[in-house]
Write a structure and sequence with these properties.
Elements lengths: L17 E8 L2 E13 L5 E5 L5 E2 L6 H10 L6 H7 L7 H13 L17 H9 L12 H14 L12 H14 L5 E4 L5 E6 H12 L6 H11 L10 H8 L4 E5 L3 E5 L5 E6 L4 H14 L14 E4 L2 E8 L11
Antiparallel strand pairs: 1-2, 1-11, 2-3, 2-9, 4-6, 5-6, 7-8, 8-9, 10-11
Helix pairs in contact: 1-5, 1-6, 1-8, 2-3, 2-5, 2-8, 3-5, 6-7
Length: 336
């Protein structure tokens, strides 16, 4: 299905994005979201593309399943909900904080060993409650704390230093970079720092979809399959209650899905079909409707995706429009 040879790093350029969704109010197109979309078939070939799927971009947290695979390959023994948490952009719920503390305890470490950026909980309701209780930014509450705890545990198991585990030259981050290239099938274009402080690797949207497909189709018992099974079985640990990405995984049997800041979404099915979406302006409101349309374009039953058409636009408190994926994403176009 895929070549073992690594392709060159994607070009660093201004992406040639295309319209992917219209903001329609009262029957008039009020705004346009540009972006890029790729749909892979079960054989790994590009079945549909819109915009620029080969330019270098930052997948943000959509790359976390790949980072989790790298840690499992390096000996991380987590399973189930704690492994899902290791790949999470969590909401900061009590279960997420408790799970992070469990991982740290397994490593013989504490919150003080975390090096992620302190933040408030990501989930709005959780954040509001957190503030009412008079609590400030916390490393545990920050949405990447599960990943960071798992990184520290991996370092402890391998005898690697802990204080500098976020340095791109650290053995852990070198191992992650190697797996990023392995699963995306291409060399990394550039390395920067993500919002949580961890190294962030630039690949292409096509490469991100390829990585998700490889994880979703991996043989049972492999590190890739362990991560996919954990996330599919515990989607709320990888996100949070009421989060759209968790609902999407529960709605589509066998789907592996991960979101990322700045309008990134990736999803893959057990047969290898995969989609990846980047919304150019980072608008979250267009991410899921476009991703759902891409999944329908990939052959997923549209009835399973009805709840992901996007929130209604309100006028005077009543629905007057919506965010609508462009017609090129209509599954009917496959047979036309």
């Amino acid at each position: 299905m895929y070549s073992n040879a690594l392709a060159d790093a994607p070009a660093i350029r201004e992406p040639l994005h295309a319209p992917v969704a219209h903001l329609v109010r009262g029957g008039v197109v009020e705004g346009i979201h540009h972006g890029s979309v790729v749909v892979l078939g079960a054989d790994g070939r590009v079945e549909f593309q819109l915009g620029d799927i080969e330019a270098a971009f930052y997948p943000r947290s959509a790359l976390k399943p790949v980072q989790a695979v790298a840690m499992v390959r390096a000996g991380l023994p987590l399973e189930g909900e704690l492994l899902s948490l290791a790949a999470a952009s969590h909401s900061g719920e009590e279960r997420h904080i408790a799970g992070t503390l469990r991982i740290l305890d397994m490593a013989g470490l504490s919150e003080g060993d975390l090096r992620n950026t302190p933040d408030m909980p990501f989930g709005p309701e959780v954040r509001d409650s957190w503030i009412r209780d008079g609590r400030g930014p916390s490393r545990l509450a920050q949405n990447c704390s599960g990943k960071h705890a798992a990184m520290l545990y991996t370092c402890r198991l391998n005898g690697w230093s802990l204080e500098d585990y976020l340095d791109p030259g650290h053995p852990l981050q070198k191992a992650v970079a190697e797996i990023v290239e392995d699963l995306t099938g291409q060399r990394i274009a550039r390395v920067t720092v993500d919002g949580c402080g961890a190294p962030l690797f630039s690949v292409s949207l096509h490469g991100l979809a390829r990585a998700a497909a490889r994880i979703a189709t991996a043989a049972p018992g492999t590190p890739e399959a362990r991560v996919a099974d954990a996330m599919r079985s515990h989607p709320e640990m990888a996100s949070g209650a009421g989060r759209d990405v968790a609902a999407l995984m529960r709605a589509v049997p066998g789907l592996l899905a991960k979101d990322g800041f700045e309008g990134v979404q990736v999803a893959a099915l057990p047969d290898g079909r995969a989609v990846a979406v980047k919304i150019a302006d980072g608008a979250n409101r267009a991410r899921i409707p476009v991703a759902a349309a891409a999944l329908a374009r990939a052959g997923v039953d549209p009835e399973l995706l009805g709840a992901f058409a996007g929130e209604a636009l309100l006028g005077g408190g009543v629905p007057v429009g919506s965010v609508r994926p462009v017609r090129a994403l209509d599954p009917v176009a496959v047979t036309s």
